[in-house]
Design goal:
heterodimer; A: 121 residues; Helix Hairpins; 76% helix; 0% strand; elongated; B: mainly alpha; 77% helix
């Protein structure tokens, strides 16, 4: 019973780590550049969850001050992750532009085909 | 629970071969993520995730697919080494979370540091009731300045890469016209 309680207390962390590892698996195992980038952004969003989850207080409310409430969730991780989201989309755009360039140069965005093309020349 | 739905969408992304499907599923993933963030009281972050993650990222992915003209990936090969590595790392991380404080407890270390001061004094010092806004624009304004620098650099990088590609394409066209 006690182990079940521990698992329930940490359920959100387990899902976060599952998302993180799925992102890592996509980046490592899939050869398509666009899919790799989607995997990378899944990894990134799991980090957002990792920051936001400890900030939540059960029974608290969003950190917008109002006399009607007294318990607020921690606002500092929210600020850090706001910055991270915007930087994340900037890096995604840069990665996609690189994929477009690679496609212009090699005619493909599959990793193994690019390596073959390199070996031929 | 929403988190489980998030995991299901992720599995679908891992299995999906059509790149168009991956782009749409990434958009759905971002919307589910935004809903989770609202449940976790992070309303500002949820708004940004819905507009930037589900909106801008999906548009960028679809634009790339339009430029690349390839919509199908190769048949999926199982990569046991990568699977083993991810599962192993995941297991170690889950083991590490066991010493973290349980979800939602108000006396965790994170809530004892600077957050109470922000909540108590930020209205007096900045006059903004939304604590996230006052930290972002006032207490941690230099972070935001650094963030805009990163976006500026990334924007210049994208422009340079795509501009060069277009010029190369035009040169090829002219050579073909002459030839």
């Amino acid at each position: 019973m006690q182990t079940l309680g521990i698992i329930l207390d940490h359920y959100s962390y387990v899902i976060t780590i599952f998302l993180m590892m799925s992102g890592l698996y996509i980046v490592a195992a899939r050869g398509n550049m666009v899919k790799k980038l989607v995997g990378l952004s899944i990894f990134q969003t799991s980090v957002y969850l990792l920051y936001i989850e400890p900030a939540k207080i059960l029974g608290g409310t969003a950190p917008i001050l109002d006399p009607a409430f007294s318990v607020y969730s921690n606002p500092l991780p929210h600020v850090l992750i706001l910055t991270a989201i915007v930087v994340g989309v900037a890096t995604l755009a840069l990665g996609l532009a690189l994929a477009v360039r690679i496609n212009e140069a090699y005619g493909t965005i599959e990793e193994d085909e690019i390596f073959e093309r390199d070996r031929e020349t | 629970m929403l988190l489980t739905l998030l995991a299901v969408v992720t599995m679908a992304i891992v299995r999906q071969r059509s790149l168009f499907g991956v782009a749409i599923l990434a958009g759905i993933y971002s919307f589910v993520m935004a809903s989770v963030l609202i449940v976790l009281d992070a309303v500002d972050v949820a708004m940004t995730e819905a507009s930037v993650g589900a909106g801008v990222s999906t548009v960028l992915l679809l634009a790339t697919l339009h430029l690349i003209n390839s919509t199908e990936t190769r048949p999926i090969r199982r990569n046991l080494l990568a699977l083993f590595f991810s599962v192993g790392t995941g297991a170690i991380l889950v083991w590490g979370t066991l010493i973290l404080p349980p979800f939602g407890t108000p006396d965790a270390a994170i809530h004892k540091h600077v957050a109470p001061r922000y909540i108590a004094d930020s209205v007096k010092e900045t006059g903004i009731p939304n604590v996230v806004t006052s930290i972002l624009a006032d207490y941690r304004g230099y972070d935001t300045l650094g963030e805009t620098t990163v976006i500026f650099t990334a924007g210049i990088g994208v422009l340079l890469l795509l501009h060069r590609a277009r010029r190369r394409g035009r040169a090829v066209d002219e050579a073909e016209d002459r030839g």
